[in-house]
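Write out this protein's structure.
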Amino acid sequence: MIELRHLRYAVAVADEGHVTRAAERLGIQQPPLSQQIRVLERAVGAPLFQRLPRGVRLTEPGRVLVERARLVLQDVDAALEAARRAARGEQGRLAVGYTTSAAFHPLVSAVVRGLREAAPGIALSLEEGSTGDLIGLLRADRLDAAFVRAPAARPDGLLVEPLHVEEMLVALPDHHPLAAASLRRQRLPLAALSNETFVLNRRPSGPGLYDDIIAACRAAGFSPMVGQETPRMVSTLSLVSAGLGISIVPASMAKLETNGIVYRRLDGTTRLTAQLYLARRADEPSPSLSRFLDMVRRQA
């Protein structure tokens, strides 16, 4: 039975043109090497080397075999190196999800850019969705990790790791009285919004943020009047820009260039923040996912 070592032996003898020197290169004795070359010749059914007074040279069958052997050995070496890179987390596939609001968070963009630069061999696919959708895709093994906002409850079978806390801003149509230029440097008490119509993400899309906003308004002494609910935070800002209401959004959303919106900070009595989390399954991460997790933690 022919093994890879027989091909390596034939290539070494062809390179050296001498069995003894090839044996030294391979780190074996000359008689066993000669024996293995004869095994290979019997399998081919023809001599591979012409024996000379001082060395050997390839026969025509030997030349054909050595040419193909080099290709086979290169493929094997490439496969081994690819496996080693995968084991080091330098190669593989990753599917990462993110909520719309997380897409504008500097941590997320820094991680994606850093992974591209540090491990270009990892094929990274990105999936946008609501927190609920992304949790479902993780459970269905269609995502490896996801940047999410606070889920309503800790999902079974998943690890949810807190990464960063950011403040929430009030998004106002630019023609709103509270958006006047003279007021923009002042912090806004949440109670000042008691008579406003709110535009919010639908609760299933971001249950944690939705519940936090409702709870903060009630703590400020009013129940918010929700006039519109949207599937994505970008849609929320579009409706605010159109003058259909006001909203409260994570500060990173202000990076989205949306005409017709003014952002104002809430005052210190309003303890309303947006938490960014990384969710993944609780099983042992692959090497590429481990590399991704390390980068997320360093950036966070």
